[in-house]
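Hey,
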Amino acid sequence: MKVVQKKNKFGVVAGVLLGVGLLGAAGMAQAQIKIGVTLSSTGPAASLGIPEKNTIALLPKEMGGKSVEYIVLDDATDVTHAVQNMRKLTSEDHVDAVIGSSVTPNALAMTEVAAETHTPVISLAASAGIIEPMDAKRAWVFKVPQNDSLMANAIAQHMAQHGVKSVGFIGFSDGYGESWLSEFTKAAAANHLQLVDVERYNRGDTSVTGQILKLTSANPDAVLIAGSGTPAALPESALKERGYKGKIYQTHGVANNDFLRVCGRACEGTFLPAGPLLVSEQLPASNPVKASATTYREAYEKVYGAGSIATFGGHAWDAGQMLNRAVPVALKTAQPGTPEFRAALRTALENVKDLPLSHGIMNTTPQNHNGLDERARVMVEIVDGKWKLQQ
């Protein structure tokens, strides 16, 4: 076992969390398994990254009988920082795997480093483009959030069932928004919905007046907002201010209480697809995800307080469960800290079967590095400032 020199009790680099899974006391030896983490715990996506960071402290302290060290960095919702963090974790910290990042642009950029260094990455961002189409580069990347296509189909089906004929779209002008536009366009066509206007905005924008004027002039029956975190509240508030009376849909990228707080009354009556975790206490006992979602909810709220749960933290939990399942398998082939172990871990991660997570039941394959199905989604409405399961 190698010895790690410490500059202070928190670790060599400011902002690095070493307490989870470390051997205690002075003269600490390096943990036997190293997991790097890069999250958007500041910046526009902080409402995603903060519960994810909180959850890292709840992940297994041992896997396969070996202690685990989690090295947590903040990428500030910035692509350049995410890549820098990825390079540091792989070249300086020599991690066995990486969890992150929180947002699609960052996760897409990290793919290059994952392939270059042959390091397995479990993304907490949602875009299917992170893992599809499968190729040599994406072979090292996995993803725990539900694919956009799974959620887009749920939205389009709900719209069609509730009399919607025409739809307006406004989404982030980045990989997240573009992926959603692509998937929803296909889902809309399959459900005989007409897409009458498409608008885009940036995560850091403070006004979307021009886009909303165009949307409302098209007079669609419903509007889909393809944003994530608190920035997704901006178009919804603007629509309500302009007197829009149609149905409003959001994506699963807003499923946390920070979004409810920022959006306030403007979000009453909004529909969205979400992982079962969001409404786990409302799920019937027969739901196959209720038990595993409740396990995470109880673990998180025991530490951070009742009502503090966020679906984004659930993704971090699920990444930990994937590793906990895969590490013992990889250890049969090689030891941590080696290229052989990383390769064996990658193979194990793409052969996870019937793993209960906070958001679904996972079954990965060499061609499917997400492995979630319809059990990983429910439709939810915002009623009286709370999430309500749609029956």
